[in-house]
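Study this chain:
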Amino acid sequence: MIKAYRVMLLPNNKQTTRLIETSDAARYAYNWTVGKQMKAFEETGKYIPENEIRKMFTEHKQKKAWLYGISNNATKQAIKDACDAFQRFVKEKKKAGYKPYSKKKIRRATEKGITLGRYEMKHHPKFKKKGKAQPKFYADNVKISFTDTHVVLEKIATSTRRNRTVQNKIKLAEKNRIPVGVKYTNPRVTYDGLNWWISVGVEATHREAKAVSEGIGIDVGINKLAVDSNGNEHRNINKDIKVRKLKKRQRRLQRSISRKYNKNKEGERYKKTSNIVKSENKLQKLHLRLTGIRHNHVHQVTNSIVKQKPSFIVVEDLNVQGMMKNKHMSKAIQEQCLYEFSRQLEYKSEYRGITFKKANRMYPSSKLCSVCGNIKKDLKLSERTYRCNCGNVLDRDLNAAINLMKYAV
């Protein structure tokens, strides 16, 4: 399996400038590809193959001299990403809304003097807008090299003078974090609004874990992050005092920024001042800090579950996307990171050789009695204790976790 590593970069001013230029070139190549694909698709209903569009971009580069100073691999991968997005769009054309234009729309467009293509496109790959899209690019996995403390990227710094070759190496924030002298896969450099990060994949061997305990069923929720069939409860980190204080500070800072925008409004346009930029940087730091606290908590919980060395792990297959449509619960579900919890459990189980299973989405784990098997159809969400006619009185989440464990057996 591929094990991913992600480390923060500490570039100097010149290296930061080159990183920004490379990410801009990758965004430009992606948008150029999307424009060409959309035009071809509207006219013919087919997308241009990747090898042809790369030849077209090579000819187009002759008009853009600034692209020659950028790593060729960054733009090639951006074109590949755009072509892959269009392939997925074509495969899911019914879901995406790809269909021929109706006669009525063609007639109205003709009356207005507008020329329509052959096909109408909805939910197609979008353009990446500067300032809103995340700056990122691909680094060549052959030309990248790591030491214990630095990384060398292609065409980020290319000084040949002895006293300046140190500038070719970008410092890593963590020492001895990424293995040295191995084959790397899919290196990506990203910017989160404050810091630059590099992520690479390294081939890792499975750790065959000897099962010490029986299988574990895990029920996730909003009140508690998770309850396993052994009776262990894992708290909701968003209810901690520290997180609540950070969220309160975040709300106040958001209102403050909104007032500053309204105060500096010029006609219909909003003017961004240096004070607004400072406040937005503070807000970005708060966002990242809260995200880090939540993801760290999920990592701690999943590690504690996997370290029990069960023979298998079963979780319920939740429709998180559908649950997010509930306006009363969407924020709590988003902050709980339910999908991230399931994703981490899956790859950590695979790495340690533990069988990971997902229960059928329609399996009534909460309504089913873990003793007699009776289904309580009128169970309400407000009932936190499960009471059955057979005399079984149990915590609702623990009852669901036991049922999930039995489901796999």
